[in-house]
Amino acid sequence: MKIDKVRVDDSPIVLIRARSILKGYSCMELFEQIYDSENRKKWDTVTTQLKILEQVDDKTDVIHFVIKTPFGCSNRDFVQKREYCLDYPKKDHIVVSFVSVTHPAMPHIKGNVRGDTKIAGYVMRPLPDDPNSTEMFILSQCDIKGMVPKFIVNYVAGKAPAEWIKKLTDACDVAKGLKKDKKKKKK
After folding, report:
1. Cβ atoms within 10 A of the Cβ of 138, count?
2. pLDDT digits (tens, 9 = 90+) for 99-110
3. What proportion of the chain, given as a percentage, has pLDDT over 70?
4. Radius of gyration of the chain from Cα atoms?
5. 107-116, 149-158, 178-187: segment of lowest average pLDDT
6. Can you tell me the distance from the alpha carbon of 54 to that of 60, in angstroms, rounded to the nearest whole number?
7. In the predicted model, what is the mean pLDDT of residues 46-70?
8. 155 pLDDT more than 80
9. Residue 168 neighbours by CB distance under 10 Å
10. Omega of the bond prior to 89 within 30 degrees of 0, cis?
């Protein structure tokens, strides 16, 4: 995985740009784990309490989620417009984008700090020589707000994509039956 931190304009928040080759994972498998809220709740331990506030159309919704933070820090929550395009810009490519919005169904939650997603998203395209493998690009510029120094935010943000990709591919393996779901309770 290659991760770049890019300074944008005068913002103290870096833009994270990551690229990863995911052998044995199709674009659609990855998309289903990322976009389907019920799937995502099973594996994404960073994004909690994910819920859809409004279904705008068949490819656009408004979501809310909370990011649990370490002891001593307020949890962060986000309200985002989320959109996807299948077969864009080419056949079998998938683009998912996120941007912060306000929504009457989700006013500020006392005790949380409302983060601001300037831009975030994924571009997935099949490898030319292997349609069951994907080249994935991750883009994220999020201000978690609050009193956390920006250099700490930028440092942690640069590590997050690799950990997230590991959880995503593990979830795909569980869905394919290649791994057991560690969260399922034994009877």
Report:
1. 21
2. 999 999 999 999
3. 96
4. 17
5. 178-187
6. 9
7. 93
8. no
9. 22
10. yes
> Which amino acid is present at 183?
K
C-alpha span between 160 and 149 (Å, rounded): 17
| Per-residue CA distances from 91 to 67, 94, 95, 131, 172 (Å) | 34, 9, 11, 11, 22
pTM passes above 0.85: yes
Q: How far is CA 169 from CA 19, 85, 122, in A?
A: 15, 21, 15
- Identify the residue whose tokens are 């069951």: 132
Q: What are phi and psi of 36, to 5 degrees?
A: -70, 115
> What six digits make up the tokens of 45?
């331990």
**What are 122's two structure tokens?**
């994924």
Burial class of residue 98, CB neighbours in 10 A (0-12, 13-18, 19+): buried
pLDDT value at 135 more than 90? yes
Chain-centre distance for alpha carbon 154? 17
